[in-house]
Specification:
By secondary structure, the chain is mainly beta. The chain has four domains: 120 residues, Immunoglobulin-like (Sandwich); 62 residues, no CATH class; 104 residues, no CATH class; 84 residues, Immunoglobulin-like, CATH 2.60.40. Helix content is 1%, strand content 60%. The strands form five sheets. Strands 15, 16, 22, 24, 25, 26, 27, 30, 32 and 33 form a ten-stranded mixed sheet that branches.
Length: 468
Amino acid sequence: MRWQVVGGSLLAAGVALAGEAPVVVSQAGQGRTLSLTVYNVGRALVRDARPVSLPGGTLALEFRDIAAHVMPETVAIGGEGVTVLEQNYEYDLLSPETLLAKYLGKDVTMVIEEPGQGPGAVVRREVTGRLLSIENGTVWRIGDRIVSNPSYRELTFSQLPENLRERPTLVWLLSSERAGERRLEATYLTGGVTWKADYVLTLGTAGDEGNLLGWVTLDNTSGASYPDATLQLVAGDVHLAPERKGRPETMMMPARAVAAEMREEAFAEYHLYTLERPTTIKDRQKKQVALLEAERVKVVRRYIVESPQWWYVQRIGKQKQDVRVEVELANRADNHLGMALPGGIVRLYQRDRRGAAQFVGEDRIEHTPKDELVRVTMGNAFDIVAERRQTDYKKLADNLFEDAFEVTLRNHKDAAITIEVREQVGGDWEMISNSHPYEKSSAFAVTFAVPVPANGETKLMYRVRVRT
């Protein structure tokens, strides 16, 4: 089935709001400058500046080639010598359904194809009918008959209905002080544009340093392309007013970049990244832009055992525990970093003895300011074993308990390591005895740093009294 409009064009569609005011149409073209500030909750701020030739007096300006997901309540326009009298967002878009709806009660020509007399011959004829209904099909008056869902090859319409548009359009009623060319800039928020950060940390064979590469991935489904645009990214938590129905949103924003193309700066309570060259972002395109590159970043590998919570008030059996492996790096200038890092996924690789990089794990990091630590969980250690055993349990009173524990740590690696044993302690507690020094890491937790020799074993023992 095909649809044709004869005697009309999209460019001829007028604007009713202006009455007899002249209509000026602005489309993307030469002299246009675009800038895009992207937040990673599916919104972007668009600044679209164009040269427009305006008459003097009152006029209607149709501003076309905008994002399909524009948020009309955020739109503003400015320019020298113009005053905004009225603003409209036209989104009655052209489609077979809307075209039929506009022609209710009007005549439409149907092209019908019927078999001809020869083999494969087709005879085309035109029938004009009045469209009566489009609910659950179509109903027509053809001559003196009422026909439901007639078969036709195509429909032909005499003209395009007024204000039916192929794309959303912003329309302003303006007052222009004088005739001449002006530079007008429209700004608006649009949905459908997101960004996220991804990192690749490739460790050397020894695993004590590596190269960090950061990428920004842009995803544009806003319904518009942005040719040769200035691109900026915002990192941080930008608060959005909640909708009446729905939960509040938070706009996540970016941190700092050291790639030669990306310039980072502190901005309000956030961080702003600016790409130092124009870039084209097409509709329905994912684009990756280099964010940072740092070589010979020193890393520390940590081995961690954590106890379950609140197990001091009952007897427990012997338990085998995982040993978590974390890679820690200092986000400092003396470690070839020292930039605010946007939150994202870090993928870890390590080179084997042949120099080939092998994937060893991934983790998500939060926004990390400069001079802070970045911790990435790699996974659980294969060659390190931790076993926990409760060696004593006493209930001294209804709310007073005394427990003794032994944590056996076995290292099957060819190098000595230190394992952090993090113990959760509830209530009002007192350490009675301990085989290794500890630090009080929080009000209800202690951390033991336990050295374990290569291919060896170490036992951590401690006794604690807990009042609940």
